[in-house]
Amino acid sequence: MTIQVVPLGAGQDVGRSCILITIGGKNIMLDCGMHMGFNDERRFPDFSYISKTGDFTEMLDCVIISHFHLDHCGALPFFTEMCGYDGPIYMTHPTKAICPLLLEDYRKISVDRKGERNFFTSANIKDCMKKVIAVNLHQSIMVDDDLEICAYYAGHVLGAAMFYIRVGEESLVYTGDYNMTPDRHLGSAWIDKVRPDVLITESTYATTIRDSKRSRERDFLKKVHDCVADGGNVIIPVFALGRAQELCILIETYWERMDLKVPIYFSTGLTEKANHFYRLFINWTNEKIKSTFVHRNMFDFKHIKPWERSFIELPGPMVVFATPGMLHSGTSLELFKKWAPNPKNMIIMPGYCVAGTVGSKVLAGEKKIQIDSFTSVDVNLQVKNLSFSAHADAKGIMQLIRQCEAKNVVLVHGEKSSMGFLKSRIMTEFGIPCFDPANGETVSIETTHVIPIEMSASLLKRHLIRQSEAQEPDMSPPSSSESSDDSTEAFKKSLPAEVRPKDTVLIQGMLVIDEGKPIRFEEAEEVLQKSGLAKHKVRFEVRKAYNATALRAAVEEADYYQSMGPESGGSSEWDSDAFALDLVYVALQSAIGNHVALARDGSAIAVRSIRIRAPTMAEEKEKGGLLIGWDYQDEDLATRILSVVTLALASTR
Amino acid sequence: MFKLPDFSGIDLKSVDVVLISNFNHMLSLPYLTEFTDFQGRIFATEPTIEFGRSGSGLYPAYNMADIKACIDKIQPVRFREHVSLYGSLKLTAHSAGYCLGSSNWHIQTGTESIAFVSSSSIQTNLHPDLFDGSLLEKASTVIAADLCPKGATSYNSGVNDVCAKVAMTVARKGHVLVPCAISGFLFDLMEDIHLHLNHMGLTHQVQYAFISPVAETALQYSNILAEWMAPRKQEMVYLPEAPLLHGILQEKGLSKTYKSVHGAFSSDLKHPCIVFGGHPSLRSGPMVNLLQMWGGQAQNSIVLVEPRMDSAASLEPFKDLEISKRICPLDIRMSIDQLVDVMRKHKHPKHVLVPSSNTILTRSDGTAELADAKNTTSTPACQWSAYKYAEPLQLGIGSLYETVLLSEELAKGIFPQSFGTTSIAAISGSLSIYNNRMQLEPASVGGRQILALHSQRQLCGTMNLNTLLTGLAMIGVSDPVVTALDEIKDMQEAEIRVEFMLEGKDASIIMRENETIVKCEEAIHISSTVLLLKTLAESDIPPALDGDSHRAYARPLELDIVKFSALVHKGPPITLHPTYPHTPSHPTRFSPNIV
């Protein structure tokens, strides 16, 4: 079986995330984003890759959107309303609620300000959202009879989710963007140990291991405070939702504590609505906010006031949260143009900026930035980059791979150079294959396939009981796949064998394959009875010859040294067969006595159908040797016993 | 008022799992977890846990530390989240439609499954997420609890009565008391009352009060649970608006919450007030104070809506008061008729268990006749039984099967032999039980040795003299002596004795109808075994031994395929294919590297 992964966007790149996968014969699109660095057709993923004729509904089984950022959902109305995809679309409730706001905002900027044509309309966005099926976390959803999806909490932004996708026994996890460390308003990403065949993970911060959260926060607050104390203006470009709320909570608490009076503004009309969403979806925030929301809602800000356009003429100092985050348009760009020439001012770039945007040029340290063909700006203000974006860093990515126990990893949503570093680290640390496909490049991953069968519970029970009675040594291979820090494993090993739960059971039985029915695994005996096949019994009677003289000599020698008794080995009738039986019994007891019950009476040893006896009739005696008989059903045991007997009798020579 | 269930008949230590259906059904949980030797796990939905946390606090039986310790032990789940336990148990909560987070449980072990249907509602105009009947699809046994009694007033038929009563009182400037818990269908009732008053043009002169120590928490919390609500309510958050009306009224200041009647409540009182809260038993709490305050005036009224209470008895001490009294119990629970209807839509279960209050008689064979279901009686395919307090009931669950995954590596070494439509193959391996998943893999060398000690080989087929002789000739035995003993003559079973020399040693094979005995020296027994199996395998000609030529011919089956498969099996190995039918749903796959 093969799982195929093709990134249409976000392959060795950040922006327009769109990944196609084929798993168990199902085709699924993961995210449908736009690229903010482009204004031409490169803005959207190349959907013609999927189908030249546009029968997208036919080709795809479903579309899954991980979160509301435009580089993950920006192309969705274009794809559904203008390309004509009409199949199911899945996203979480908060994503479904917030996504249309951002799409509308983006549409306005593109169409109303830049005067673009042939763009999706407000009605398109509404129609598109009607096709969306909202999902809850952990809820398993059957898209059709074979395809199951399940969402897990991803942190990152409100409503961000990772998706587990399963067809038959093949599975895949797509992380979207995620954050492995909790912040002031969101929890950290978490996933069950689902052991996916493939993990497709973002790798925005593949090479970064960020310093501790606390010091980052202190750093951020100090920079802001220093700047305003000096009379400068601080501009913080953000997206209306997500990081903004985190930074607002941070600054709000700091202002409260330091009793600062410098005004803080939030530039977008969306804020009020956005905060309302946060209040309604408080279940998606972190535990602390959840537990206190009845008394004090974190999203009712005291110090942060809405921004009005006229404020731009005020002397300052002030702190302004301005949208959008990459300075590509809107208030943040306007403020930047105004404030950039003054070295007293400061810009704090909290997020990641897509190549090609003004934001990325600022981050690159350019001193003169061409904004469009008519304007260019001298950049004299202080530029601070604060890695506040809620992506997992290298440590977090490794942690997630360990948490879900992925068998293969595919890296997307990151820079090519840093991906290579992370890739080699994953391969050495986990010993699993790792891929970083470019856009349009197919990765094919072979999965070992397993066959689901139904095992009779009584069969399992019989073997479980047998194994626990026999106190056999644990036959499980040393767990090499387990990471050494797995404390439960260590704990299990420290337990005495009797109470340690069995993780492997040796088992044998008969597979029954009936056409049109599930394959069953049952007791062989039962199967044969049901099938009505004629049973045939075979019994073996073999004579095991041994050298009686040598045996006697060996015994006499031993006796002589041991007892020196006068009677030993005397003229009394010495029964070599009885002695041989004794020898065999002792040898069997030590070889297999732990596993099967041995019975001994005067002239014979019995193990199940196997009997080892001394010859009784004169005719038999004449030939010498021991007689061993067994039913063919115990052939395996008999073979083992024969070898033990041979060894035991040979050793006397 | 507060009585624990009788746990005396159960060894609580042996209880592995407790499933909670809704927050009304967990008041004994702190007792169970904190005061008994119960050590199992507990599952409930998130809203159940949160409402349970505040609800349990109302009962003086526990202190806050007990409740916290108990609540912390509950593992939260969401609807349709699969929980796997102990390798073979699967639990899934399905929406019951009764209140926020109310759930019915699907319990699956191996191939058998049980649906536990507790307080449920199939009404579609309420705020909780709709009843999810899919748990009945697979269930072989259905256990129903808390069904609506016969003759109860449904919510839809009773609510108009309540609204009319409230409107009448408000119109004559009277106060209305609605004793009830701040949860469940109250949220719908309040909405219906408000819409009715709005319709009548009375909303401008009315105010709502919720009086309970937990009112504020319950109201606020319920409004952030949009994901647990009916689709029509879910849509509200996309606007964004509070999904439940009380959130909007509270924002506008039309409705207020109070911890008790003391304090701000009296001073806030300006208009006719509709008061929700207290306890429907009317024996303690704010309703007692309010009845003292307002009970004397005839323009006020009290409406009792709680269906599980004997409302007449509750009102008994206040029968002399002037206040207008109305009993309108509203029952949203599913009735047995509705359960039958719902089950008709799905595969019929083998057993249905209902509380004995819903049956009229139980026959000696354990089947029961239902009190109020239309024409529903036990059939051989579907048996109805009644369960009673403290009476154990044994469910005859058929043979159990567990789902196990056969590894590719092991499957490759399996050579099934077909007998008509059935193929069988003997296999052995090591079953790893890990992370709720059982996988059968080839056993290690040591494991195979242990397995060999316990293996029981099976042989089928009949011996054939001709083939045996041919086989003997092939391994170089020149002149075997064949003696046939007749049944009648020798007063014993007919047998054929073949005596020969192999590798210079004496050996004999005695063939009877269902049995063959091989006697030989130990040194040559392997050779004779091989010979024998070959004979059984290749006896293509009808066996001459028994003369019964129309007997079905069968090939031998080998248990240990590792050793003998090459010998017994004639064709190429057969590989098994996965059973899930995924013929690719699309004719083409993505063609690579076009961009």
TrEMBL record, chain A:
Residues 468-494 are annotated as: Disordered. Gene3D superfamilies: 3.40.50.10890, Ribonuclease Z/Hydroxyacylglutathione hydrolase-like (3.60.15.10). GO terms for cellular component: cytoplasm; nucleus. GO terms for molecular function: hydrolase activity; metal ion binding; RNA endonuclease activity. Keywords: Cytoplasm, Hydrolase, Metal-binding, Nucleus, Zinc. It is found in: Cytoplasm; Nucleus. InterPro entries: Beta_Casp, INTS11-like_MBL-fold, MBL, Metallo-B-lactamas, RibonucZ/Hydroxyglut_hydro, RMMBL. It holds the Pfam family Beta-Casp. Its cofactor is Zn(2+). Residues 15-232 form the Metallo-beta-lactamase domain. GO terms for biological process: snRNA processing. Residues 244-362 form the Beta-Casp domain. Signal peptide: none annotated. The keyword Transcription does not apply. Belongs to the metallo-beta-lactamase superfamily. RNA-metabolizing metallo-beta-lactamase-like family. INTS11 subfamily. PANTHER family: CLEAVAGE AND POLYADENYLATION SPECIFICITY FACTOR FAMILY MEMBER (PTHR11203), INTEGRATOR COMPLEX SUBUNIT 11 (PTHR11203:SF37). This is Integrator complex subunit 11. It comes from Podila minutissima.
From TrEMBL, chain B:
Gene3D superfamilies: 3.40.50.10890, Ribonuclease Z/Hydroxyacylglutathione hydrolase-like. InterPro entries: Beta_Casp, Integrator_9su, Metallo-B-lactamas, RibonucZ/Hydroxyglut_hydro. Belongs to the metallo-beta-lactamase superfamily. RNA-metabolizing metallo-beta-lactamase-like family. INTS9 subfamily. Residues 186-313 form the Beta-Casp domain. GO terms for cellular component: cytoplasm; integrator complex. It is found in: Cytoplasm; Nucleus. Keywords: Cytoplasm, Nucleus. The keyword Ion transport does not apply. It holds the Pfam family Lactamase_B_6. Its main location: cytoplasm. It comes from Podila minutissima. It comes from the Eukaryota. One of its GO terms (biological process) is snRNA 3'-end processing. This is Integrator complex subunit 9.
